[in-house]
Amino acid sequence: MPKILSIDGVSLAFGGLEVLSDISFDVNEGEIFAIIGPNGAGKTSTLNIINGFYRPKKGKVFFQGTDITHLQADKRAALGLGRTFQNIALYHGMSVLDNIKLGAHSHLKTGLISGLWYWGAAHKEEMALRKEIEKDIIDFLEIESIRNQSVSTLAYGLQKRVELARALAMRPKVLLMDEPVAGMNAEETEDMARFILDIKEERNITIVLIEHDMKMIMDISDRVLVLNFGYKLTQGSPREVQKHPDVIKAYLGQKKG
Amino acid sequence: MRIGHFKETYVSDQAVFATATSRFWLGILFALLLLFPFVAGDYLLFMANLAGITIIGAVGLNILTGFAGQISLGHAAFIGVGGYTAAILATRFNLPFLICLPLSGLMAAFFGIIVGGPSLRLKGLYLCIATLAAQLILEFVFVHWESVTGGIRGINLSPPEICGYVLDNDFKYYFLTLAMVILCVTAARNLFRTRVGRAFIAIRDRDISAELMGINLLRYKLYAFAVSSFMAGLSGCLWVNFLKTVTPEHFPLMESVRYLAMIIVGGMGSILGSIFGAIFMTIVPEAISTVLGLLVNTFPTAMSFLFPLQQVIFGLLIVIFLVFEPHGLAEIWRRIKNYFHLWPFEH
Amino acid sequence: MDIFLQLIASGLLVGGIYALIALGFVLIYKATNIINFATGEFMMIGAYIFYSLTVYLKLSPYAGFPLVIVCAALLGTLVERLILRHMLGQPNISIIMVTIGLSSILLGIAEIIWGSDFRSLPPLFPRKPIIIGEVVLRSNLFYGFLMAIAVVVIFMLLFKYAKIGVAMRATANDQMAAFSMGINVKTMFTISWAFGTIAASLGGIIIGNIGGVQPTLGHIGLKIFPIVILGGLDSVGGAVLGGFIVGIVENLAGGYLDPYFHGGVKDLAPFVVLILILLIKPYGLFGTKEIERL
């Protein structure tokens, strides 16, 4: 399977605090790649490096074979890096529909002048976008009934779903998901896992996932990377990782005696 | 009574005035606005022109501060740039009004972009202070660059002429103002149906995640400054052509604060709110002076309190709305509308 | 050369007084993170209260100062309790605008009560100018400077050693931690508003003593922004340094450039310097860039 994303010897530090030390891994096209590790292991920082929100002190990031280490975050989104956030980052001043439309930003053309004028090109583009979102995203994620609501009035689980919808509107090649089921109940978690699998299988979108829910990780991911205090602990299939002595140690602490 | 309405196509769902009822009321409003100058007296016509010109400025500030979240203490100075550009082009270069108007907007937009330039790196307080500095520096230029701006005496203009038609009284000017208000309000409303407007709101709500969603922060912040100050410039041009004079005292820091008060009272992040706020803040000083005028017989010095009383009331309005009704008059209006929408089954 | 020395010397003296006013801003900002646009108006109100006490009520300045301190503390407390307390958790932009609204209210009230004419405070200091070498210093400026610096030093000592100062510093550092150590964070907010208003009022009296009192006295408060951006928003030492820089810059600009522009450069210069500095260092000379998280 071809590599779609490569992290090559990446280190990151804030002031004197080393957050990531020489991390390397590859993500294959079409797989679900999970990153796990205790709190403070550097999982979210890794996603932020891929997104371009943080710049690494050392190392490189490749996307589809091109070096994107110095590319601005917004340009990376246009290339096909979608993202959902650990602490939901929806725009509370907009409706669900507008939040989703925002995800499609890089794929639209309307500029300042055509936007002020609206009739003609901008109108056509908006209508086409609306149709696409209704068909490919709103139906798929079953959020028809809330599309015109303000996001701030939604329940937590639904907000997470809207965030996923927005990320899908970005038409990503790789979707970076930061704890998609954190704080969800069993039913919501199951729904979300189903959506993630469908996204992978039906749309052939590669998924990089951070999660603490071990059952879900073991169920859906193809490969797992384990981080601890900014270091790469191990990497392998869910089963291999689960049995790895270092992983057990990192999660349960040193066994005495 | 209207319980609800159902939309059959996405086009109608996306329309601004989605229902026949709202289109009907809009038509009535438009007819009334056209009829207004034929029945209104001189004073009301004067006020209507003033309010209209202010609405354009307020819509501009609301786009920048209310929608895109970039606070500006320099809005009056941008209006001033538009006003001076219009006056200088008309008197020095004898350019016709219809050319001065867009050029005033463009000149103000140019200054807006210069001031907005550092906005990528300056956030919150720092940007606020940078715009404050811009206000003070531009004020200084208005007063001290006498060879161009005429110093404190300013510049006088003759009434504007459009295709041989001279707008030499408030009645004729009203139609120009009305057309410009409709144009600017519609353009602003349009903008927020597209990706540009959505990007503004995203930058206001969470600028960091907006960048990861593919929004070029610098470009869109500059867009916001450009549109906002373009409208400020238009407003300034209309204002000096209406008063037929421009002097530095029209654009002090206090005027920037008055514009901020407008969008707060009207509703930040609402086009309708900008209209409400501008009208409200145009009426308030008049109302105060009317009340003081009535008191002159009993207290002969009442009129000397006009200016300070205005300041107290502007300040109070800002504070009261921010504490008790942060979404402003637009929100109050929405509640009233909803009440009648389902009337008489509101419970 | 003596003009230069003269300008630098009086710039330093003015700068010391600015430092006191900036302190009125920093005290509030440090503890509550609120940008107070009404600091200048607090100054102006303080000066007017002092004027009323000493001129209308004919009290001696020695009675005037403590009474102004009491009134200022009261004003600060009221503002915090009645307005700012309701704004906890609101967006920064709203809080900034509330203080702008407040400044407009105070300015209007002052003009209604005291009118817009110049008022002179009763003489507080000996009139004889101070002469050092070839440099002549106006006595009001010189003694005002000494007084301002004395107040700044008292505040600094208060923070360093008094229990309440330590609690305020703890609140400024980490509100949650301070709260868990049994510090009443809300009371600390009120106290910082009271202290900030006191510092500003005393600054207002000193400034009023130099140039007379008028409602627009508060416009000097706008200079706080160049001062704190230059010196760093949250350090008292920085405010003092920024005060000196702004004092010297505006005096030099006023002395050398004003003749060419028919005045006005003096007040503008700090803002031009401010813009230049922001273009090069967006977080000010000593400000720290915050690490943003997602």
Profile the largest sheet of chain B: 2 strands, antiparallel
For the largest beta-sheet of chain C, the strand count, sense and barrel status come to: 2 strands, antiparallel
Average residue pLDDT of chain C: 88
The averaged pLDDT of chain B comes out at 91
SSE string of chain C, helices as H and strands as E: HHHHEEHHHHHHH
- Separation, N- and C-terminal Cα atoms of chain C: 56 Å
Cα separation of the termini of chain B? 14 Å
CATH domain topology of chain B:
ABC transporter involved in vitamin B12 uptake, BtuC
**Poorly predicted ranges of chain C:** none
Question: What Rg of chain B do the Cα atoms give?
Answer: 21 Å
Helix content of chain B: over 70%
Low-confidence stretches of chain B: none
Shape of chain B: globular
Q: Which radius of gyration of chain C do the C-alpha atoms yield? A: 19 Å
CATH architecture of chain B: Orthogonal Bundle
How many helical stretches of chain B? Answer: 15
Supply the number of helical segments of chain C: 11
The portion of residues forming beta strands of chain B comes to: under 5%
| 3D shape of chain C | globular
Please estimate the helix content of chain C: over 70%
